[in-house]
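User: I'm preparing a small set of examples for a lab meeting where we compare how different chains pack in three dimensions. I only have the primary sequence for this one, and I'd like the structure in token form so I can line it up with the others. Please keep the answer compact; I'll paste it straight into my notes.
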Amino acid sequence: MNTEQLQSILQSAWHALPTLLAATPVTLGFALAAMVLGLPLGFAVALARLSRLGWLRTLSGLFVSFIRGTPLLVQIFVIYYGLPSLGIQFSPVVGGVIALTLNAAAYLSETIRAAILSIPPGQREAATSLGLSGAQTMRLIILPQAARVALPSLSNTLIGLVKDTSLVSVITVVELLRSAQLVIARTFEPFGPYLAAALIYWLVSSLLEVVQRALERRFSRGAARN
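Assistant: Understood. Below is the structure token output for the 226-residue chain.
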């Protein structure tokens, strides 16, 4: 690569930057929406997998197995292109959010389930001896401790969602990657825009990692005081 080629790449990346930055909030919006919606759904699935009801454990286990065992891209195609044949149709934005939410919920449920199971059974027994109900034990004793255990994995899931949002570009959602593709279609210079998009993904992920570490330190201090 000579100096002129490098200059051309940097110039095309710089020219693409305003368009890509304008699309970045869309990427973040998809990731946050999937996380906010997927977290309670994942919690419900985790509780279902811990239920004493066999049929509920089976159904929730099948959901997790199917979502984790199939590519997210295929899930997006099934929801956006497949469901209309059954009379169920979503806009690209809604379809993308649903696919990301279901995918996130399956992975989050395993994180939450493992965190709950990591709490020693003796604490449940102690709570019962104090007269706490099952719901009170879960809310006051189990969940605060499980949250500290699950925090790193939950944060990693959010970072993964930021990158996974690139897949909704296949259903014409104009997020970060799709914006880069549209710039390339106008300029016929792929390297610069793709490089600029990659740098934005990296910077966003790095920022989220900084926030994750700060939260972990705060939770650790709180646990030490308790």
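A couple of notes for your slides: The CA atoms of residues 155 and 211 lie 9 Å apart. The longest helix spans residues 3-49.

User: Perfect, thanks.
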